[in-house]
Amino acid sequence: MRQVSTVAELREATATFRRQGDTLAFVPTMGCLHEGHLALVKRAKAEADRVVVSIFVNPSQFGPGEDLTAYPRMEDADCAKLEGAGVDLVFLPTEEALYPPGDQTVVMLSELPQHLCGLARPIHFQGVATVCSKLFNAVGPDVVVFGEKDYQQLQVIRRMVKDLLLPIRVVGVPTVRETDGLALSSRNQYLSPDERAQALSLNQALQAAATLVANGEQDVDRILGALKSRITSSGGQVDYIAVVDSETLESLENLGHEARALVAVQFGGARLIDNIALRPPS
Amino acid sequence: MRQVSTVAELREATATFRRQGDTLAFVPTMGCLHEGHLALVKRAKAEADRVVVSIFVNPSQFGPGEDLTAYPRMEDADCAKLEGAGVDLVFLPTEEALYPPGDQTVVMLSELPQHLCGLARPIHFQGVATVCSKLFNAVGPDVVVFGEKDYQQLQVIRRMVKDLLLPIRVVGVPTVRETDGLALSSRNQYLSPDERAQALSLNQALQAAATLVANGEQDVDRILGALKSRITSSGGQVDYIAVVDSETLESLENLGHEARALVAVQFGGARLIDNIALRPPS
Fold it and tell me: How far apart are CA A49 and CA A56, in angstroms?
């Protein structure tokens, strides 16, 4: 596994793959890798001949007062995991490699960030779209792989790729969970044992909502009510609990063909998010 | 010369060039082609094996009240000129091909548009950056060729390509002029004979300023004064007359290594722009 830190080295390495006729899959990460990331790598290996992973804690997607400086960094352990997972190339850029002196270009979406996490984190998705544009242009992949855990991010990337006519296929991978259902997240390590127990309410409530819908419930208010009663009794501080169109993320009054339930709840120092597909009986 | 109107056809055609090992140069235009555009094509042919030209009057770079609907369209004559100039492929997209349903992604620069034409046309450069991102991603060129006539646009494209890490070389081509010095522009056809005579003051004033600087003048106020007296006496309505840093377009008090003088003046129904390099004696 090769490690590079400049765009020039990255391009030289990917050009070598291309000369061999290989296709490329790309997985952008912020490091602190867990089994969720490794599931993305596994899927990437199934989608293309070569897998490129980036590790970069992107400052432009953190707002003031968010956990940018506290965000865990462990590059050596991360690279060992990626090598074990069969990754071909790791890109570890400096901030200056992605934001050259005088940098002033941003990629913005006008509607998708006006929902859910975008309300509490107003510059977050602009930062995500901008850094992903840069990374996609630097790597030049055929396929990019993102987790459904960050569902709004996945929809932002799908929309951006479509709108900017990027010749890239976007693949979403289901969330990886602990055996008790907690979605894997680098931020879980901020949880105390009590908070971790409380946080199980997220997946339990989402599963219950999906069962309600599978059994024929179509009234969004009743689905939201069931989600809220289960989550608010857990002790977390709710940011949002929402049932939305699975593509536009706009609020729904009645369930259409496929919707998504999404929650964001603060437990102690950790703001956790989770989501589930709501599929009416066919 | 092949003509295509969908992104899928475009990609299939460029993929054929790539399989032959050919490099690609791309010239985006809004049609109504004149010798200035053909100079870009000629340079493009010198820069790469194959030349792709797009013709698209981009709505997102016109503000309310600007000349979007009046903007001249003559696709058949344009294509004949491009064929004569040896272009390999012309891309004539529909609006929906570049702005798919639900489109909401924009590319913005925070500083360069805060100067010169960007002040009178606040959404113009966002529209230019966005459509050029789309076109560059659709075409996948090695080189893009732009005219120095739209000098601020050229700097916006250079900056965007650098910031977004696009693997593209940006080439600027000197302005093509009538024998009497008037810069070629699709908007010159809006001029009456009297207005056309008045408009010669732009190039005359810019040439005089460049001569002043070449002869040792370093005081920006005196250079601006010379430009203003020459242009305001011509009868046009001045939008701006500026001497700026040639890369950042920020105002200068004293000339550094290389500056640029730029003017925008309305003559009747035509808003004309022109510019020149100011090179101090070495």
Answer: 23
